[in-house]
Protein 1
Amino acid sequence: MNEYIVGIDIGSYNICAAAGKIDKHSEVQIMGITSSNCSGVKRGIVVDIDNTSESIKKCISSLERMVDTKVTGAYISLSGGISELVWNKGVVAVSSEDREIKRNDVKRVLKASKIINIPNDKEIIGVIPQQYIIDGYDKIKDPIGMCGLRLEVDSQIILAQSTVVNNIFKSVNKAGIKVLGVVFEPIAISSVVLKEEEIQRGIALVDTGSDSINIYIYKGGNLRSISTLPLGGSIITNDIAVCLKIPVSEAEKLKIKYGSVAADSLRDNFKIEVNANYNNKVKVDCNVLNQVIEARVEELFSLINKEISTSEYYNELSGIVIVGGGMALINGIEEFGRNILGKLVRIGIPRYIGAASPLYATAVGIVKDVSNSMKLKNTIDVDSSKNDNLPDYKKIIEDEEETENGNRTNGFISKIKDFFTDFF
């Protein structure tokens, strides 16, 4: 099992899991990917641990058959919709006599950046260093080995309600899977669908889920803002079910198979036979179906546009990338969105064989992000001590593992890693 990296994306409608490994060229290869329905999560929050656990177990069981091995541990993602970013600065004096910046100096400055006032119901779960500053010289990515008197860091502090995160951990653990680590969702997605040039120039990443839409704005190489809309693809499905008087399950199938907002979607009309209640079959008009979809998609894009346009980076955005399964799978969505948003719109698709779908962006992104960290041997560990059988997210420590010759092999990266924990 050690050769595989498994990532689990716990969504409101689907649980997606991907398994990958690093090949001889140090590139990650996706060896298996699967999904299963889930009704135990609402807007990124677990509302039914048993249901979520069963969905995870079903998904992992399917993945095990694909890769022909037993999965005992996995990495999961933490949604930006249940998180909050707070900018802060840390400042320390370089401790060594020769003024060379050591790993311990970086550790101390990151800890200094976490000294902030937070609400009682939230916890600091991670730190994303944006840049280091040495004696006034900024935009330094890795200060270790450089010389200076004063070390500063501009960082983003990630906050989340500990009860929300604990319930996610419990759901995974109850499925018989050990949580090996947590990856911040916007970083995971961006690693497989965004180009570095886009992140530098300015880009909006729109993750359309079943019952919420998370909007992440990047500029200058950094994640600048997170916002969430309390609507998603399920509202389109519900409209179809109500207007066509068919079950929600059948409405979802129609949306995925026949849904279109393309300019010529109403040109060729035909009847679609679907199962109604009590196994009765009814025929629905394809034009009516797409009119219902178009009306609701237009509303959702208008809300997205309203949210994005309030950003101070709006005029600098080069485009908008859509991922997820809520709207990204609808035919013609790129051109339709471009007309409403006034920006270049494209679907974010991971460039991996067998995983080329916006639905799998987060799961594949987790595997990619973890593989990058393994190649760089950079991790941030979280203390595994128990606190009423729940993990303590406050105590973020650095893994100081050393090689046989005494050289330290682990350092910091700009994301949460290895939330090692033991629930029972």
Protein 2
Amino acid sequence: MVLVAPSLADGELAVLEALAPTQAGEAARASILAQGLPTKRNEAFKWSDLRAALQDGVPKPSGSAGMVPACWQDALVIDFTPEGFGLEGDKDAGLVIESEESLPLEDVVGVESLAAGFAPRALVLRITSQQSRPIFLRRHPGAPMRVRVELKAETNLTLVDTSLGEAGLASALIEAELATGATLTRYSLQQGGNKAIDLSHCRVTIGAGATYEATSLMFGAHFARAETLARLIGAGGYCRIRGAYLLAGSSHADMTSKIIHLSPDTFTEELFKGAVQDRARGVFQGKILVERGAQQTDARQNHHALMLTEGAQIDAKPELEIYADDVQCAHGNTIGALDEEALFYLRQRGIPENQAKALLIEAFVTEVFDTLSEQDVRDWFNDQARTWLKSRVG
């Protein structure tokens, strides 16, 4: 029997019931009993009130996990359902797959603690040699996912994850450790209905000469928050994160990142772009922390967004916190409307207004994907954005 603080809301009680009976679940339960779910009173959640989003309880799951896109047909597919996870396809040599109990994270509260608490088991992927086959993580509606990835020195892995449920609470926690010279490339697609709660957190430790590259596209949900915490602990570490969001109706999407430079000669490049219309809300929070010993850090962070209609909301908070004196760091943030001159130019050439707007928004947002080296992956992201624009704008 769980003793519950009388101040907890009905939604928080429902979350307590949904947590797994594991050490991680008990840790998350203790955190909620002590502090409740994050609200706008918490600085990190001031534009993303999780308690309010869950005030009516945990939505019943519905929808489909979707098909595996053509560009990932050769991938090893791992399906995460409310009952557990299963594998489909062959795996490369040098990939060890194990399962272990979901353990609590140390001194952590928030989305990552919840994601750990919802998952009864953690899937462990150990990479001991170069991988030619991507791993496709497919989350079914309402399914928890916890994955721990360990890349040994000079190895590589491409990881793809999707969350497409119409309703329900889906959570994901990805923990990755990159040894010397390892490379992890991650692609992520999120799209949820107006009864979907989507919580994801990625924690990455980047060793000497290692590379982490992540690209994501979010269409939001009733509440969607994607967090990244990256720690560069070895000289020559590289972190590159690209993110895009397209939001309409009453959808909500929050892209939050914190990059910590702990070693000298490390590099971060972040680019986020978005477009929001109707009563939707887009949130960007990005912090780059350069510790005292991380001399010769090169860190760049940019966020640019379009407000397409009155009533749309975009909140942005870019931050630099620097304690080293030999660094090159910069950040930029712009929020505006469509270029009227560019729109007039297209209209003058016979392009209907809605189509012209869609073309301009597509060119603006999909710049995030322009530097992807794989043409089929770039086309996949661009096609997702184009389909959304045709249904909402064009």
